[in-house]
Amino acid sequence: MKIIFLDIDGVMVTSRHMLQSKKYFGHEFDPACVRSLQEILERTEAKIVVSSSWREGRTLKQLQSIFEINGIKNVVGMTPIIEGAIRGKEIKEYLNQILNIGLEVDRFVIIDDEEEMGELDDHLVETSFETGITRAVADKVIHFLV
């Protein structure tokens, strides 16, 4: 299995889109980022695990619904919330949990606008809050996963 650990703010929700959209409601992803993510998913057959702070106070079903409204259906999980931990530690814990139930992860990548992932820094493809997933970011992610 291939996994994309996905942040939302600065990855799918961008300042560029918020400024351009006069009717931004908070759950609307930047359409350019959606197209880039859809291409990544089509070319890699990866699954999405949400690592964003958006998972706080939401169920997996609620997150899946937000993504589906935006045209994305590959959300299969969310990382655990570990108080005071960096995101990389939460991702590592998720990987340990799925290994313990017998699932194998062939490759994984982290798409995030935060640059600190601890020992998982080598798996990070960084975005900017202004533009999110660009064509260049998509190319890096695809290269990483294939």
Automatic annotation (TrEMBL):
Pfam families: HAD_SAK_2. This is HAD domain-containing protein.
